[in-house]
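Recall the central idea of this unit: under ordinary conditions, the amino acid sequence of a chain determines the structure it adopts. In this exercise we apply that idea directly, starting from the sequence alone.
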Amino acid sequence: MRLPPVAPFHCSLVIRSEKSILSPGGRTASRKDDFMKKLSVVVLSIVFLTLSLPACGPTKGKTLSATPPPPVKAGTTAPPASPPAAPVAPDAACTGPCTIATVNGATFPVPELFRAERRGNVIQLIEPDGQVQVSAAELEGDTCAPAVASAWKLIAPSEKWALDKAVTPPPTGGFDEVYAEIYVPAADKKIAQAIARRKGRRIWVVILRAPVAAVDRRAAQVMTFITGMKAPGVEEENLKDKPLQSIVGNAEVLRTFIRETIKATGVPGLSIAVVENGKIVFSEGYGVRELGKTDPVTPETLMMIGSVTKSLTTLMMGTLVDDGKLAWDKPVKEVYPAFALGDAKLTGVLTMEQLVCACAGLPRKDLPLILSFWGKTASDCLKELGGMKPSTGLKETFQYQNHMVAAGGFLSAHVLFPKLSMDKAYEKAMKERVFTPLGMKGTLLDLDAARKVKNHATPHSQDMDMTHRIVPLEHERFAAYIGPSGGVWSNVLDMARFVMTELAGGVTPEGKRVISEKNLLHRRAPQVKMDADSAYGLGLAVSKSKGLLVVSHSGGTMGFATLLTFLPEKNAGLVMISNGTGGHLAEKAIQRRLVELWFGSEARAQKSLEYSLEQMKKSLAEAKARLSAPTAEFMAPFLGTLTHPELGDAVIAKVKEDYFMTLGKYRTRLMLYKRPDGKTVLAFTEVPLAGLELSPVEGTPGALELERAQERYVLTPKTPK
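Accordingly, the structure predicted from this sequence is:
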C-alpha cells in the first residue's frame, strides 16, 4: 500500500528524499515513501526528487571509454542474442571508486567495492554481494517510454515484470524529460524499477532489480551511480557566484506561498525562521496548534524536532572533545567497557564518532522502537544494540541508525556525569553544554515538561485520505529512550540561534564561543556518501547543490516534521517545524520557494508541489481501492494473542463487525489489502501508523509477519501458561 505512514525521526536523510535544496521532495525517506512496501520504491521515489542535482563527477580514478557500435534507437527491437560460448570481454571496465563512460561520453561514478563493465550500449554495475542488479543503457528516441522497453530487451530480455505504475515527473536537472516505471514485486520479494532521462534525442535508462533488503542496505551506493550521471549538454543553473537577495524584500511573496502550501497539504500549523548574516530576518507562525482549536502557532510554539536532535547531540560531543574529556577517534569500549553490539569484531574497533556517522554498517531497527517503547530507558537502548549485527562493512556505505546515535549521546553524557542515569546525564549535558550556552531558553527534552508549556503544539498524522488527525501525545514518548537521536522539543527561534552559531563557526549571536571551529567543522566532514553529491557527517548531512555547499538535517516523529538547512558560503539558513506529517512535503516546497527568491531563480516550487500532491493522492486512491473488510474466515486463525520477543504481545479481536489489533498502547482497525502481487494481507488503518502491513506466514498457522526493509518479525500465537 502506498499510504503516508510515519518513519521514526523522518530519516529522509537515510537516503534523502531530496538532495537538491531546490527540489521540493516528499518525505522519507521518504515522501512519503511506503512504510509497508518496505522501501520497494525507495530508489525511484528518491530519483524523481534528486534529478535536479548537478553531478559532481568521480572522486578519483580514471574515466574509461571505448568505441563500440552506435546506439540502438528507442522503439526498435534489439536483435536476439545467442549465448556466446565464452563470456564476452567488456569494452570498458573499472573497479570503484572510478568513473565509467558510455559510447557518447555520459559518465557514471562507480562506488567503492563495486565494479562496472560496459559492453556496447549497456553498462552493468556489479554489487559486491551479487544481489543488486543495476544496468544503464544509452539509447536514442523522441520519448522515454519506448526507450525503457528497448532497454529491457538489451539488459534482461527474458525477464517479465508486470507494470505497477508509470510516472512522468516534471523534468529537472537540465533534462527535457524524466520517466519511470515501477513493477509489481515478485513473489520472492524482489523488486524492479526503471528510470529514463532524456536530453534532446539521447536517452539514458537505468534498470534496477534486487531483493528489497539488498536495495535497502546498498541504496546509497546505487544512488551514487544513478544521481552521479553526467551527460553531455545537460547543465543546470549554478548559484555559487550569484548574490543572495534578502528575503525581506520578498517577505509578502514568501508569506503568501507558505499560506497556500499549508492549505494545499492540510498541515495544521507551521513555524519558520530565516537567518541572514547573523540575524533572524523572518520569523512567523501559521495555522493552529491543535485541530479543532483556535490557539495559533507562533515562532515560540514548542514542537518536537525529531532527528534534528542528532545535530545538537554531536555539538555537545564536540564540546567534550574541546575539553579533552573525549576524542572522536576514541574506541567506544574505552569510554564504556560494557558496550557491545551483536558483532564482537565491530564492537572492538568502533570509535565514538562512528556511533554518530551512519557508517557503521548497522541497519535500522525501528519497528520495536515505534511499537514497543513504553517504559524503556537508555539502558534498554544499549541492551537492544547488543543484539544488532551489521549488514555492510564499517564505513562501507550509508545506513541510518537511530540506536547508534542515541548510544553516542548517552555515552558521551556518561563521561560527564557517571553517577547519574544515562537518561538524566544526557538531559543535563545538553542543558549545560548546548541549550543554555546557545540561549535556547525554550528547548527541553522532557515530554511531560513540554506538555506543561502553554504554547506547545499537538502532533498530527495523515490518514488514508491525507487528512490530518490528532495523535495522542503519549505516542511521541517513543523518542525518550533514544533521546539523543530524536527527543528534543524546541521552537524555530531557538533553532535559529543554533543555525546562527553554526554559521559563525561556533560563536553565539552574543559573541560567546561554545565550541571550537575545528570540532564544529569536524562534524561536517563527510564520513560516508549518501549519493553522488551528498554525504553524511556527524549528525549532519553535507551536499553540493547547484554549486552551493548545503548543510542540513530533517526530522520527523509520529506527528511532527522539521527541516533545518544552512548555506555556509552565503551566511544564510532556515528552520521550519510543523505539527503534522504533511509538513515534510510542505517544508521542502517552502524551502525551494525561499531559495528561488533568494537567488532570483525560475519559480518551479508551486508546480513541483502540485505534482507531488497529485501523485500522493493517486497512490492513496489506488491503495484504498484494494482495501476491503476482513472476512470471518480470513481472520479466524489470528484471533487472540500473538507475541514476539521484541514487539511484545498483540491482541486481535472482533468488535461488532470490525477487527482490531492492540499492541502496547497502540490500537488500530484492521482491513484486508490485496497487494499488486496478488497476496492478501492485513493493513493498519489508524494514525499514526496507517498502512503498516501484516502478512500471513505460509506454513505457520496463525502467524503474522511484520516486515520493513531489513527488519522482519513473526508474531506467533501465544501459548497459554
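The radius of gyration is 25 Å.
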